[in-house]
Write the structure tokens for this entry.
Amino acid sequence: MELKENYNSEKTDSRELRSKLIFFGVDLDSWGKKGAKTLDELQKEIEEGESVLVEENGELVRKVESAVIGVFYEDLEGHKYKLKEDRQVFADGNVRYRNFPQAVLEKIKRGENSLQAAQRGLKEELGILDELKFKDQGGVYKEKESVSYPGLKSAYTQHKFSVYLNDE
């Protein structure tokens, strides 16, 4: 089965997407349960340019790029504090405990660079509208089965940043 360009575009047909996943051996039975996301959520993610599906070595891979932001504060006595995300609460009430070492992880959307995604992430997740100085901390690439989409291999490129909330 050939991977069509429309799996990485603004309009994705859900029946074709379901067929593609099943063809590549992705079991959809656990999707939408116990913190796993639904097929509709994957479709939306693809349409919004937050991920793409590609075929690599006969395997379907979800590729995601994200900005990972460490958020820090130093008080007047020199004590340093680090904001940390410990859970994600879904609309249905399910909770996924994350224990992330960073405060914000934001998917990079189509047409956006990593710094723009980092700035958007602080605005959306923390309500921070101020112009801040982001320090580039490099990047990392990893592949693993997705927790959000069980059975679907995902490749993550993370662009790391740090930012201090202190007044300058």
